[in-house]
Amino acid sequence: MNVLEIERGDGIMVLRMNRPERLNALNQELRTALIEAWTEFNESRELEIAIFTGSGRAFCAGEDMKESVERGTVGGGAAGRREADPFRSGRVNKPVIAALNGLAMGGGFLLVEQCDLRVAVPGIQFESSEAKRWLIGGYDHGVKNGLPHAVAAELAFAFRFSSERLHQLGFINRIVEPDQLIPAAKEMAAHLLSLPPACRVNTLTMMRAMRATVPDRLEHLATLLKDHGAKSDLMESRKAFAEKRKPVFKGWDDPADRARTPRLEDVK
Length: 268
Hints:
- The protein is an alpha/beta fold.
- The chain has eleven helices and ten strands.
- The chain has two domains: 4-209, 2-enoyl-CoA Hydratase, Chain A, domain 1 (Alpha-Beta Complex), CATH 3.90.226; 216-266, no CATH class.
- It has helices at 28-43, 65-71, 107-114, 130-133, 141-145, 149-156, 163-168, 181-194, 197-209, 216-226, 232-243; strands at 4-9, 12-17, 49-54, 58-60, 96-100, 103-105, 117-120, 125-127, 160-162, 174-175.
- The radius of gyration is 19 Å and the shape is globular.
- The model has no long low-confidence stretch (mean pLDDT 95).
């Protein structure tokens, strides 16, 4: 069974993650297949729009933590590095439509966020999971998506959101019934293909350039905070998930470090 199914035709590439038994979790095999597919799409002269979806009851559950525990390291290895992936690094210069068939958690949520347009079915769940797996929560999602501070904080602390709520907040463009998901995405793709090619390229470039980013000084603070705490908790969170138990976190190697949390005024 291919971990990634690809359809090509009429200027559209449909990428369907296909590990339904693992909720399309991102193992090294799937990450590598995605890198190859996004490279093909970006370099193709025939394919202009991508539709990104999943099989089964999930779009993508994020990092394959069972594989991480077996490997003994967090993340996805070489294939998990953002700069290795044309899509995640922002090098794909054509529109991408997310067709969200099921839940999107952690790294799966990041894939949704990277898409330009988003169509979802009712009742599915979304979660920015960094707060559960790292030493700092997903602080930048609210900035990228223009969300109110209270909502951004809720997202950063890994609370779950429904597709209906994210539609109300403007994060999802449309909600459709499951049997209309791919047709609706293809209808959006057909509209994009009806535009003058230069208009489509130029407008995409402008819209992406207008997305807000976290200022450098705050990114520096985030870098300090990513190193503040017991690094053993990163693997403990994954082991607990894989073993279906409650995690036992250490917090800090030196308890006094809690009072030494980096602050913005510490950033030079």
